[in-house]
Task: inverse folding
């Protein structure tokens, strides 16, 4: 089988119904979480156009975790853990903003479903009474528990399956895929844990989502040190899985947490409220932490040294800015063409970031001038006319914005936002603590006050930029360093810090934990060493020179990196060992050349290399005609499997393209064999 199996037909019309019994086609999907559910929804959407109703299509889902929620969003996790999105900002369904080849099929957001779940078939009461009570009381602006999201994803999966046409069936195999074999021109054999016979399929799609990782060399070194010294070291892990590893931490024990993002927030909750403490409301209306006495002492620091910005707790006061404006497909194509003409690859910070920043500024100032004109000296049309003509990083732009926006607090300064502690030092930990608490207070106040709704305008613009960047990365016009270090490193970190932080109440609780002496702040530029002489972990930061702390437990408060070299997934490990999968390795060859070969500096991103168009899985020899991959660990770089409504989510676009590719390829494969001589599945499974 060649790559022609993936070619689009000249006329993409629905195949004619044959009078001869059709050979069934078989599709296997490894991973049954939100990404797989989204792919199923897109298969159902395009099937009326692209699939012969006389031909059965059998879809097999393989995942040891519940279909729909998958591993990360499964019900079996602490009820203390919450999403960092409001209920109204979570959807699994496409809408009018979605730019798709297939049809849009709308559906309720989490908030809309929770308000009246009985009105959305297939209705089934949520089994957990606590989750039922939460859903009944859930308001659109609430931040739900992850168990509530699990219930929503369970319902979405069941709805998608029941809406499939009768000739498309789904079977769930609650086990782990361990290996994938089979020739490129024949059936693929998916080997499953606990099964003697493999599952055979025409095509296989990998949608495992976020993956655990085996330890890196540094992590193995730290773990070995901890074992020798009877200490404790916890490598990066997902919060739902890390809880069991926290039980051995003693009350009052000094614990270092390296990382100040969402993983830290979860760990702090599990080590405080999860130990029996609770928050009450003080006389000033702010949280006061009542300790149980079983909490450890938590020392936290990171490269940036401050927590992620809280999620805005308000809505836009004006209409949403029409995005993209300066950073859309046409401009990205022009950037790529210009790089090819000059024979020089683009540097993200030098060549691309100014446009990304201008797009972010457009979203910010659109809201400021439209919703809060009393704080500007120009009307919006006059401001926009001048803004159009100016580049972001110029003295002229700075002078113009200063004249049009008198209060510096109303101006967007992305550099100051990115590294708020750069160049700042403090005489001691108490002085730094007071500074950081004031920083947190200011952030919570700003993200809770609709007078600052321009921040939400910037947030939407950043979402738009995020959705466009995979197109630029796939074009091959970015330098290898720009992709490996800047796009996957600096940019992703900045986006998460500004736009993907915790609810404001979590930062209020952080302040209460600090006042209770449970959480203590270390600062920016955190350095942690294994002190062999004294048998402890020792930490210091650039923010408080000369100050060090020691601890008996070190926790990496971050998620595992999706690297192919260190993946803990048995299927991916075996594919890597056998040469059946290819890691993205970038070099700075000439524009237009294959960036995965050639001379020059090489950057290993750790991502699974896939075709930027339809997700075909690359082997060292090229794209595989019968295997595809989607999601977080791939070079598709559209991480979120669900999205805010009305944001044209890139994951939905990827799902749509891949689903239509699958239907066309499966139709061709099935048509090439005699009727009723298709591959068959073996082993027991759960029918849906």
Result:
């Amino acid at each position: 089988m060649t790559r022609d199996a993936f070619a689009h037909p000249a006329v993409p019309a629905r195949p004619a119904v044959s009078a001869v019994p059709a050979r069934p086609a078989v599709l296997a999907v490894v991973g049954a979480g939100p990404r797989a559910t989204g792919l199923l929804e897109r298969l159902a959407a395009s099937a009326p156009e692209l699939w012969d109703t006389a031909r059965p299509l059998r879809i097999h889902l393989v995942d040891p975790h519940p279909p729909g929620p998958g591993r990360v969003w499964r019900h079996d996790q602490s009820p203390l853990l919450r999403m960092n999105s409001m209920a109204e900002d979570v959807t699994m369904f496409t809408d009018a903003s979605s730019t798709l080849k297939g049809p849009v099929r709308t559906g309720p957001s989490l908030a809309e479903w929770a308000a009246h779940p009985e009105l959305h078939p297939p209705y089934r009461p949520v089994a957990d009474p606590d989750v039922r009570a939460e859903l009944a009381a859930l308001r659109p602006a609430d931040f739900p528990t992850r168990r509530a999201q699990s219930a929503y994803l369970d319902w979405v999966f069941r709805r998608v399956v029941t809406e499939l046409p009768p000739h498309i069936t789904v079977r769930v195999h609650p086990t782990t895929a361990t290996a994938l074999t089979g020739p490129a021109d024949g059936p693929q054999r998916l080997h499953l844990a606990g099964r003697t016979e493999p599952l055979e399929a025409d095509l296989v799609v990998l949608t495992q989502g976020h993956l655990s990782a085996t330890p890196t060399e540094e992590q193995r070194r730290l773990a070995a040190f901890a074992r020798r010294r009877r200490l404790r070291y916890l490598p990066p892990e997902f919060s739902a899985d890390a809880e069991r590893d926290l039980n051995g931490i003693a009350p009052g024990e000094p614990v270092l947490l390296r990382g100040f993002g969402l993983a830290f927030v979860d760990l702090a909750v599990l080590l405080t409220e999860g130990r029996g403490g609770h928050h009450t409301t003080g006389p000033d209306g702010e949280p006061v932490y009542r300790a149980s006495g079983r909490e450890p002492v938590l020392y936290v620091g990171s490269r940036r040294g401050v927590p992620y910005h809280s999620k805005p707790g308000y809505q836009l006061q004006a209409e949403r800015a029409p995005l993209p404006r300066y950073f859309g497909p046409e401009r990205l194509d022009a950037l790529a063409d210009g790089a090819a003409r000059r024979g020089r690859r683009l540097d993200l910070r030098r060549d691309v970031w100014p446009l990304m920043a201008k797009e972010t500024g457009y979203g910010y100032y659109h809201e400021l001038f439209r919703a809060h004109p009393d704080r500007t000296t120009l009307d919006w049309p006059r401001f926009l006319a001048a803004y159009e003509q100016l580049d972001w990083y110029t003295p002229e732009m700075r002078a113009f914005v200063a004249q049009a926006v008198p209060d510096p607090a109303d101006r967007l300064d992305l550099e100051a936002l990115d590294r708020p502690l750069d160049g700042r030092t403090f005489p001691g930990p108490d002085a730094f603590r007071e500074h950081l608490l004031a920083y947190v207070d200011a952030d919570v106040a700003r993200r809770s006050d609709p007078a600052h709704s321009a921040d939400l305008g910037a947030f939407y613009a950043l979402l738009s930029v995020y959705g466009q960047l995979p197109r630029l990365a796939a074009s091959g016009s970015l330098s290898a360093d720009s992709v490996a270090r800047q796009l996957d490193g600096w940019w992703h970190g900045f986006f998460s810090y500004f736009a993907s932080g915790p609810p404001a109440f979590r930062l209020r609780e952080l302040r209460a934990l600090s006042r209770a002496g449970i959480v203590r702040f270390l600062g920016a530029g955190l350095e942690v060493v294994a002190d062999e002489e004294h048998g402890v972990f020792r930490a210091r930061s650039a923010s408080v020179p000369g100050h060090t702390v020691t601890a008996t437990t070190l926790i990496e408060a971050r998620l595992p990196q999706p690297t192919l070299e260190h993946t803990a997934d048995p299927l991916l490990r075996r594919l890597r060992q056998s040469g059946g999968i290819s890691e993205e390795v970038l070099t700075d060859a000439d524009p237009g050349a294959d960036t995965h070969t050639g001379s020059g500096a090489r950057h290993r991103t750790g991502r699974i290399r896939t075709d930027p168009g339809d997700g075909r899985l690359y082997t060292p020899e090229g794209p595989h005609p019968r295997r595809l991959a989607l999601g977080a660990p791939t070079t598709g770089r559209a991480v979120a499997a669900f999205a805010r409504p009305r944001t044209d989510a890139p994951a939905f676009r990827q799902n749509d393209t891949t689903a239509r590719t699958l239907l066309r390829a499966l139709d061709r494969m099935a048509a090439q064999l005699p009727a009723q001589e298709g591959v068959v599945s073996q082993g027991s499974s759960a029918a849906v």
Remarks:
- The chain has a mean pLDDT of 91.
- The chain has three domains: 3-8+22-212+563-581+609-687, 217-307+503-556, 329-499.
